[in-house]
Amino acid sequence: MGEVHLTFDNGPHPEVTPRVLDVLDAHAIHATFFVLGKHLATAEGMAMAEATRDRGHRLGNHSFSHEVPLGEDLGPAAVARELEGTQRLLDEVWRGPRWFRPFGGGGKLGPHLLSPDSVEWLVAGKHTCVLWNSVPGDWLDAEGWVERALADAARLEHAVIVLHDILPEAMTRLDEFICRLREAGHRFGDDFPAACLPIVEGAPRAGLEAFVRAAE
Ligand SMILES: [Zn+2]
């Protein structure tokens, strides 16, 4: 059975993130949290991001508003608002490698994820862009996501699973999910598979163009 890395997007959330952190602590698992700038813009959100970091997890930039994918919002204004606006806040709590995950709009992969301007910004800032290979749909189905995620983990050699620490109901099943991954023999690791990393510390990798909208 393969390796699994859990990622939690769109937080931090005042009630759900602390519960997710408790479950991860109980299993001694480290995950990556891709946070939204709009949630870091409050003292409460910033405190939760600090708690997430202090409990051994990674923090990454997942845009500010999470409204329009970067490949559908071409131009430098979106970079300033969505990426720089979030990074300024994130830099106050996170000094490690710069992780970034684009907003996919329902977890879809494709050229809508990034604009040429956003790629330029990620390269200049030496960011690592982290995509995914499992989107079990925890926001659509608070129960059934567990079975889909287990099936993905069984199928993949190295699963990068997208979950959301903003969903009170779906996240009540996180403990069960992790127990079942362990029972199935999966390992939890810190690495991401190369296929999920189109940019590594600012270096574009082969295949990046599949995730970038061509300039008009
Ligand atoms: Zn998201």
What is the multimeric organization of the chains shown?
A: single chain
Give the uncertain stretches in residue-range form.
none
Please write the string of helix (H) and strand (E) elements. EHEHHEHEHEHEHEEE
Shape: globular
C-alpha Rg, in Å? 16 Å
Helix content: 25-40%
Mean pLDDT rating: 96
Strand content: 5-15%
Q: What's the count of strands?
A: 9
Number of helices: 7
Q: Supply the CATH class.
A: Alpha Beta
Major sheet summary line: 7 strands, parallel
Question: Which ions and ligands are bound to the chains?
Answer: zinc ion
The CA-CA distance between the termini, in Å, is 44 Å
Structural class: alpha/beta
Number of domains: 1
Please give the CATH architecture. Alpha-Beta Barrel
At the fold tier of CATH, the topology name is TIM Barrel
For CATH, the homologous superfamily is named as: Glycoside hydrolase/deacetylase
Summarize the structure.
This protein has 216 residues and is α/β, with parallel strands linked by helices. It is built from seven helices and nine strands.
